[in-house]
Amino acid sequence: MALESEELKLDPLIGELADYICAPPPNRETALDAAHLTVMDTLGCGLGALSDPDCRKRLGPLVPGTIVPNGAQVPGTSHKLDPVQAAFANATMNRWLDYNESYFGKEGGHPSDNIGAVFAVCDYISRVNRSKGEAPLNMRDLIQACLMTHEVHGGLANENSYLDHGLDHELMIRVSSAGVTCRLFGGNRNHIIAAITNAFADGGTLRLYRQPPTTGTRKCWAAGDAASRGVRLAMLAVQGEDAYPTVLSAPKYGFIERRWGGDTFTLREPPSDKIIQNNVIKVWPTEGHVQTALEAAILLHPEAKEKIDDIKQIAIRSHAYTMKQVDRTGPLRNEADRDHCIQYIVAIGLLQGRLTYEDYSDDRAADPRIDALRDITTVTVDDSFTNDYYDLNVKSDANAVQVHFKDGSSTDDIVVNFPLGHKNRRTDGGIDRIGEKFRENIAIGLTHHQQAFLLPLFDDRATLETMDVDTFMDTLAG
Predict the structure, then answer these.
(1) pTM to 2 decimals?
(2) Phi, psi angle pair for 316, to nearest 5°
(3) Please, what is the angle between helix 139-158 and helix 12-22, to 10°?
(4) Which residues are within 8 A (CB) of 266 and not within 5 positions of it... i.e. 6 or more apart?
(5) End-to-end Cα distance, the chain
(6) What does the pLDDT look like over 144-162, one tens digit per residue?
(7) Which residue pairs, CB below 8 angstroms and at least 24 apart, start in 205-214?
């Protein structure tokens, strides 16, 4: 199919995304520094998830025993998979603990969900190149590609609320991974348009597995599904698959009319490198909008820990998007429900002064004090928090927590405007905590020898960038 005809004019948004992906890779040092930090943090999140048997059982080949020539290495495991299945495994383990970074526009999401696809494709291409006597890709190529997926993903989040349309934000992963990995496979602008338009043609996945009362474990592997689908569409595109130039605007059958209710679907501005420099790297394994609420609860823990039975009310103030996403009352059926419940997470913070992924387990949730605290917790919207959340010049993600006791006394009203992993707080202990998190996570998935190889690279982008991707990945094999 010709890309354009008199009847089929390319949707402008598709053209903007394709032009960005085809342009020279971003090279601003501050953006590459942010991308390097995000790549290393995300790799650590995946290695940390290897402690969970439910995660591990989803990481192998579709057919046990399959051997793939030039297969891509799944970090911390013995699996070498085709790039589609490797993208599924990588992105699933990276996302499993809800520990990788977040970016907030009108839609929240995790642009680093695309990193699993980039790792898989760069590794596979490097091995194929080496087998033909050609140069492999290096880690700078990988970091730049990860940066580009962030910009496409975040650009699609800035002005478009998938939650309000009942769709999951995995659509942004599918589009971003499809477009950028198509470029990595050698695709030209026409190929990239084919990959992107086919990603949109898939429509949007229902969001029910993220929302009560139907929250389920699919939200742990939805990113893997979307990333792998993006890679599959990229491979089809470079093989000559048709594009659908009016996939967004086509009357009756296009995305906007059939999946978006006819509302505006747009980019705020052409992609650049703003998203990677405004993402939030999590320092606790929670849904992104709860990071500041948990920090406030942890700050209140010393005052509250001996008076838990004397608490009358826990008052949380938040912004409107948090209310949509993580304000959950009533029974919580599983870990997926609990890690998206602001009341549960604040209760854990007050009780323990910390939170780990194990705090979402059935055993931990059986502590009767948790639900007792949830029952006396109120969550209300603070309009100033909402305004600052959407203000491009502020982009806060504020929560406030105050504890009221039965004797009439209260704690201070603790307001945390920016998460500890936000760029505004990297020098406020944020970068140190991100480094601690990295060390904790890689200790789960790697041997002492592998940790000694990887740890220095957390702070050393220059050395990392010179490494061949396949050599780097072989060092992480389990």
Answers:
(1) 0.92
(2) -110, 130
(3) 160
(4) 13, 159, 160
(5) 45
(6) 999 999 999 999 999 999 9
(7) 205/167, 205/168, 205/170, 205/171, 206/166, 206/167, 206/168, 207/162, 207/163, 207/166, 207/167, 207/168, 209/168, 209/336, 210/168, 210/340, 212/328, 212/330, 212/337, 213/330, 213/333
